[in-house]
Amino acid sequence: MKKIFIVSTLLLFSAMGVTARDTELSVSYGAMPAMKSLGVYHNHWHDLDCWGSANFTIDHKFAPGLWIGLGYTYSSADSDHALDGRYGKVTWHGLMVNVRYEWLHRGPLTMYTHVGIGALVQYYSPSWEDSYNRTNMAFQLSPIGLQVDIVPQFGLFAEAGYGVQGIIKAGLRIGF
Which of 4-18, 79-93, 103-117, 134-148 shows the lowest per-residue confidence on average (mean pLDDT)? Predict the structure, then answer.
């Protein structure tokens, strides 16, 4: 029975006709994420010097031009003036479901729109009290994205939008 199940599962996946690039991993840097500008994300601490965000995603192609995946975002900031001359550090961890729709293909060039929504955990380390956590909604809306494939399995991309991944986000994608 076990052999029949394994063989039928392998046949099913073989019949699905997996293409050369159905799953992609991406790594990117985002400049000026929403954590710096939205008070709800930094608990109204002042003078936060946020360096940007590091983003990691895995996406799977569910239909022609439609990618759905999971993304992780990390960022942190220090403040010398969190409250009345006190200082502290804030660290953000975001986990989002991403949807990317490709709407233009011209050779190695692809243009797309990206939307993500999920949870953002903020870890506060103030100098004047114990550390604490807060959780908020994470979001990213990038109406325009551009990907250029260097080779069929590797591409560079950039997006313009707003959210926890940054106003401008750029990185690389590896497909398999």
Answer: 4-18
Hey, what's the torsion of the CAs at 87, 93, 98, 104, to 10 degrees? 50
Name, in order, each residue with C-beta under 8 angstroms of 52's C-beta and a sequence gap of 6 or more: 29, 30, 31, 32, 33, 75, 166
Q: Alpha helices, DSSP H only, in the chain? A: 2-15, 34-37, 39-42
Give the SS3 label for residue 7.
Answer: helix
- With 0.85 as the threshold, say if the pTM is over it: no
Distance CA 171, CA 102 (A): 17
> Distance (Å, rounded) from C-alpha 95 to C-alpha 58?
12
Task: Kindly state the DSSP code that residue 47 receives in the 8-state scheme.
Answer: S
- Residues 60 and 111: their CA atoms lie apart, in Å, by 17
